[in-house]
Amino acid sequence: MIKLAHEKQRILICGGTGCISTGASNLLESFKSTLKAKNMDCEYDVILTGCHGFCEQGPIVIIEKDNTLYCQVTIDDIDELVSQHLAANQLVERLLYINPIDNRRISSHKDINFYKKQHRILLDLCGKIDPENISEYINHGGYAALQACFEQKPTDIIEEIKVSKLRGRGGGGFPAGLKWEYTRNADGDPKYIICNADEGDPGAFMDRSIIEGNPHSVLEGMLIAGYAIGSNIGYIYVRAEYPLAVKRLRIAIDQAEATGYLGENILGSNFSFQIKIKEGAGAFVCGESSALMHSIEGHRGMPRSRPPNSTKKGLWSKPTCLNNVETFANIPLIILMGGNEFAKIGTENSTGTKVLALTGKINNTGLAEVPMGISLRDVIFDIGGGIKDGKKLKAVQIGGPSGGCIPEEMLDLPIDFDSLYKAGAMMGSGGLVVLDESTCMVDLAKFFLEFTHNESCGKCTPCREGTYRMLQILEKITDGLGTQDDIIHLERLSNNIMNSSLCGLGKSAPNPIVSTLRYFRYEYDAHIEDKTCPSGVCKKLISYRIDSMNCKACTICLKHCPSQAIIGERGKPHLIVSENCTRCGICLEKCPFQAVKMG
Prior knowledge:
Number of helices: 24
Structural class: alpha/beta
């Protein structure tokens, strides 16, 4: 075991992309200089870690000796933190987390519901170690699973993965052990390992955060997979839009090669393995395995029809095992704890944990790792802290742009592959968007369909032309021009596209429409029959007027109207000239007397 060079107390600063964008790197330098100025630098190490997950409260700082978590820390706070907390052992209360339910300040991150309700095994070291220092990973048990594998037969390792019942976390949910077995048994040489780190879903950042926080766990998972299936080369396909993840991967690969965990005759064994990074250009379709492989080969990222599957004929037509970041990060854990123990986490058919990206109208946006089978209610209200601004929950969109919407009435639905599929949604990569009462479900379906249409590679007609036609129909409905026949067309097109598209992008593109029609048909009817948008989102279906009884003629709305659509003068009720109104809603927002009405 490599010994760490220090025994100092540690100050952990969240170094995920989100916190770095709000100044975490500057906190690192400020902490160091302040400690040095106060002759305390010999007592503390300041470490930029991976993502802590609590993005809503970033930049996050944890004083490790007493687990105190400070939120939204700025450079101006550093001197006080050093003088008061580190030197005088007194909490800086104004920087502590405030529980949104009872407004209580909480100091220890272990007592905050966001962390307390999670089951962090994959993310355990994210936020605890320096991801750019391989020694820290090794000192927390890193690469011990790989060493253990060298004492087993490759087929025994595959059997252990099968016993764990691990299903691929990229969205498909295919059993990982079976995929490994198929690849090992396939004819062809060489065989390839590919880690899919493309992650193009809006609102998803699970894979990026795992790489940024603990890149060696992914490398170790790939190494074990390579040993098990008989491969000596692996690729990580990561989008170039993730510069920090790419940087930390390169550092991790260099360090693993320098210490003998990658390269020729690893740790004195007969096993050799190398890993190459392929930076993708950010095409959503390259999340599909065959399109991703075409991209690595230097071609345009477009899918091909299957079979044969990639386990038989993948990269350069050779047997290829492709899993995503989260799947590979699970592998060392399974080897160390055993497949049977791993299978005890979660549900019978969805074992282990799932990392979810919580976004939308929720108090605690961020990254949460939960056991499979936890209910949507527990995630949204316990971990997520409930809905923002006291509004009512309307639905949850889960599974990215190809996922589906689950209504508020089904909040006790367990989060696992099969339950979500039966409800008309999908696990996807784990993006979970919370929607409140102000969301128009027709407009939401249009938003996601516009995304998948734009990202369609155009190779197959059902996806290329079908999504365009569906988008046109949704635009017609949200413009107030829809008819009931349009609903029939949407249902027919959805069915045809799902059954005839070439790849998963097209097959799942209609999901937002199908699920919103299933649970929110009344909103489509309101747009079509009543020519109204119940949520007040679709601009062509709403109008504003001023109630003269409530209007105090204060001129506030008039002053803020960007299109000069409001007329009037102080002391006389105002009017909105509808021909000039752009329906931006600023008058409604600014009026202090609730005189502006939406119709």
